[in-house]
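User: quick one, sequence for these tokens?
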């Protein structure tokens, strides 16, 4: 007997009642994904057969929302 079935249904019911139409869902998604800035750094290392290591580094900075 599957014991997770009823508990999953009870867990999902409140979320179904909150989703009234597609426009509200998209609006909420856009509101939650808003950020004033974003920053990340990257590193790519390539090691050839002779053991030589080549590094490529970059940074990304953004001010304002996407």
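Assistant:
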């Amino acid at each position: 007997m599957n014991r997770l079935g009823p508990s999953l249904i009870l867990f999902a019911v409140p979320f179904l009642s909150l989703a009234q139409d597609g426009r509200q869902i998209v609006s909420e998604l856009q509101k939650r994904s808003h950020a004033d800035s974003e920053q990340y750094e990257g590193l790519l290392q390539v090691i050839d057969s002779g053991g030589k290591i080549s590094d490529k580094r970059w940074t990304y900075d953004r001010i304002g929302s996407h």
